[in-house]
Amino acid sequence: MVDDNTGVTGIDRRTYLTGIAAGGALGLAGCLGESSDEFEVLHGWTGGDGRAAINALTSGFEDEHSDIDANFQAVGGDGNVDLNATIMRQLTNQNVMSSFANWPGKNLERYRDSLMDLEEDVWEAEGYKEVMQDRVIDYCTFNDKMPVVPIGSHRMNNLFYNTSVFEEVGVDAESLSSVSDLMDALERIDQRTDVTPFSHAMVAPFTGLQTWAQILTSQSGVDAYMNFIEGNGDRDAMIDAFDVLQEIRENYIPGDASSIGYTDAGQKIIGDLGTDQPPEAACIHGGNWLYGMFRDDDSFNYGEEWDWIPFPGTEGVYFYHVDSFVTPTDNPTEEETIEWQKYVGTKEAQIEFNNPKGSVPLRTDIEPDELTDFLSMTYDHLTDSEEYPPTIAHGLAVEPEVLDRCKSVIGNNFQNPYNAEDAADGLLEAVSQ
Q: What's this protein's family per the entry (predicted)?
């Protein structure tokens, strides 16, 4: 389908314009012309845990399929912004890649009419419906197709902390069961040490959005969060959560928070272990990809120099995040792409990727000793938590246009100066349109 003067094939004008607004005008990869016959996979893992994970995954694939000339392209950027813009530009210019990394669920709306169906050739052929968790099968089903294969899951509601800082001020992390407890701990750290209590990145608005979602859930429950993403949010509860986020941002975060990204914020928890230089920050909220980052430092060990708890007040909750590989239609290398997607779903590939990434496999047949200790525990939580709300900042909970509006609300109303009421009203409007 070609609509208006955009030259868009298989993507409606609204989706096209959303993609361009998200960054397509930045001059990223993709040029006019027909799709090449090269097997090309795009992803956003350019450094740290992500680079190690994708390298392990692609090396395993190349070892098994040496006959396929593969081109794995890394496109970096916070929250997949640059990757999504590159994908959109190539698709709209009919320069279709073989596959690309992206979130499943409602995020796939941006590619609604440009997705290949893998249900018969991959899901049924490999028996993946029998070995993948039911929840992820639902998120991988879109528009009566199964265009993606999941590679791993992150839990979002974690609070990682430097054990030496908590011990120095006498904070028992396990006793923190509410946002109020957390705020008391941050104040104690602020008063008794020179360490920043709460590391946080503000260069992109998604970090504020995801932290606000954890505070809302902690203070008002999973139902309050689910009601919000479904368009029926409790305004007072939302304002209360913004008030807490404002207090954290005004009193407890790094002085350079507005200019740093997530990786730099995580690094502040580690410090310089080879010297007497203490860590710069005591704790950080985020997905368990931070574990993948922490384990890169051989001197920063789980259970010794760092540990974790569920974000206070969210015990028994697994805030659900999924990474996957998506297959576009009009695929230039259909046979090779099917082989790639079959490999992504294998037990071997899921272990190869997730151990260094800090995420956990979506298959049900993984043995605990095939994962690191932290990930084995996380895998148990993936299978036996009480509730699994979908992450808002990473594509599962709301459609791309809604997510863009939500991030704009944070950027416009909650990056300092702060306006809790306007931010709450903006989010309510964003999810209700």
A: Belongs to the bacterial solute-binding protein 1 family.
Q: How far apart are CA 328 and CA 339, in angstroms?
A: 15
CATH architecture of 158-318+393-432: 3-Layer(aba) Sandwich (3.40)
In the 8-state DSSP scheme, what is residue 257?
Answer: G
SS3 239: helix
CATH number of 2-151+325-369: 3.40.190.10
Q: What is the pLDDT of residue 47?
A: 78
Task: Quote the CA–CA distance of 368 and 225 in Å, as a whole number.
Answer: 32
Residues whose CB falls within 8 Å of the CB of residue 79, separated by 6 or more in sequence, listed in order: 204, 206, 393, 394
Nearest to 340 by CA among 132, 139, 42: 42
> Where do the H-state alpha helices sit in 93-178?
128-131, 134-139, 163-169
| Strand ranges, E, within 272-360 | 281-286, 306-310, 320-326
β-strand 196-199 against 281-286: which pairing, if any? Answer: parallel
**What b-and-e string marks burial along 23-41, b requiring 16 or more CB atoms within 10 Å of the CB?**
bbeeebbbeeeebeeebbb
Cα 82 to Cα 74: distance, rounded to the nearest angstrom: 10
- What is the model's pTM? 0.90
The ranges assigned to domains in the chain are 2-151+325-369, 158-318+393-432
Residue 359 pLDDT > 60: yes
- For 43-69, b/e burial (b = at least 16 CB within 10 A) is bbbeebbbbbbbbbbbebbeeebeebe
Cis peptide before 312 (omega within 30 of 0): no
Note the pLDDT tens digit of each residue in 243-269: 999 999 999 999 999 999 988 999 999
Cα dihedral 237, 243, 247, 249 sign: positive
Q: Give yes or no for residue 277 having a pLDDT over 80.
A: no
Cα separations in angstroms, 299 against 218, 289, 404: 32, 18, 39
How confident is the model at residue 33, as a pLDDT?
39
Angle at the Cα of 86 from the Cα atoms of 83 and 87, rounded to 5 degrees: 85
Cα 26 to Cα 23, 29, 54, 203, 359: the distances in Å are: 6, 9, 25, 18, 31
Task: Dump pLDDT digits (tens) for 377-429.
Answer: 999 999 999 999 999 999 999 999 999 999 999 999 999 999 999 999 999 99
* DSSP of 190-236: HHH-SSEEEE---SSTHHHHHHHHHHHHHHH-HHHHHHHHTT---HH
